[in-house]
Amino acid sequence: MPDGEQISLFDWQGTETVSEAVTHEEISASPQVPIPKGFYQNLQELTTHCQQCQRCDLAPSRTHVVVSRGNPEAPILIIGEGPGQHEDETGLPFVGRAGQLLDKILASVKLDSQNDVYICNIVKCRPPGNRTPTPDESAACKPYLLEQIRLVNPKIILLTGATAVRGLTGDKRGITKIRGQWLAWQNYLCMPILHPAYLLRNPSPEPGKPKWLMWQDIQAVRAKLDELRQIP
Ligand code: SF4
Description:
This protein is of the alpha/beta class. The chain contains ten helices and six strands. The protein has a single domain, classed as 3-Layer(aba) Sandwich (Uracil-DNA Glycosylase, subunit E), CATH 3.40.470.10. Strands 1-3-2-4-6-5 form a six-stranded mixed β-sheet, sandwiched between helices. It is globular and about 50 Å long. Residues 1-17 have low confidence and may be disordered. The site of iron/sulfur cluster has 14 residues, from helix 6. Iron/sulfur cluster (SF4) binds at residues 50, 53-56, 58-59, 65, 123-125, 137, 140-141. One of its GO terms (molecular function) is 4 iron, 4 sulfur cluster binding. Its EC number is 3.2.2.27. This is Type-4 uracil-DNA glycosylase. InterPro entries: UDG_Type-4/5, Ura-DNA_glyco_family4, Uracil-DNA_glycosylase-like, Uracil-DNA_glycosylase-like_sf.
């Protein structure tokens, strides 16, 4: 089938129907083949498929595809930018110094990184030199992210840093302008927060500084989660 025909055949959105015609092989080989909403039955199937993915230029240099860590039924889904060196080596997101700080931030409001959150990234393969993913790379990987969100179906999505905000919502505002604000995206409640790596570079706890701002934001997230849990 010519590429043009294939694209138009699957160029639709907004239904849970799964196309039988598009195959894993076609999807994983080309960013031109959209991944239909509802394509994956579960996260294990998605993970297995991601591990074979060649949809963008990040594939050749990766060691591991980094899909997620945490609880697939968590109430909070956290999205980062992309894997760094430790993540590429281990196959798990947010396990370097920034990840350890993220776990401490969560623990400060009694959120457990094993049970209360599911963590993933905009792109699942490491950009060389930890550069920001390109728009093409983010777009090629985004359908996997959308499927992760659909399957986890969290109460709250946290977007760590400007790349995560832009990658999911398209909002190009600076992170310092929108951090701590609740955003509605596709019926999900999202909050942009500072990236933990930024806090490592700005460790002052003084009021108004990044670390202090994160403390305000994570307390607001905890309060919102408690509120949502009381709604039947
Ligand atoms: S970053 Fe995403 S789209 Fe690109 S090769 Fe990895 S899994 Fe595939």
